[in-house]
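[agent] plan:
  1. take the single chain provided in the ticket
  2. run structure prediction with default settings
  3. attach structure tokens to the ticket
  4. add a short note for the reviewer (M.T.)
[agent] executing step 1
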Amino acid sequence: MDKISFDEFRRIMAYDVVKNQNCIEVWFDVDNCPDYQESWLGKMVDKETKEPVYWFGLVEDGSQAYDYDSFEEFVDAKVFHNKSLREIWDSVSLISIDGCNVPERLLDYLG
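[agent] step 2 finished; step 3 output follows
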């Protein structure tokens, strides 16, 4: 598992998924938190509005799935036991980005 800075994460999530017609999917764990293992987050194009949507899929049964219209709403939402992604970032370990090895995929986004 890999760690990246919050700035690197911000730069990945700034990628224009609308223009490039794709999505970003990040598979991750929250260190020492059994509730958030093998969780997902990302950014995609909303099929109806054609605007970017930031999302979480935190647990397997789908009961903690959330969508946000802006990056700031997304990273400041208190979805991790009343803490935000921004607050817990140092405890986030990435498993993959877009199904790829984290260091290799970072090169594509941060080049």
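[agent] step 4 note for reviewer: The chain has a mean pLDDT of 95.
[agent] ticket updated
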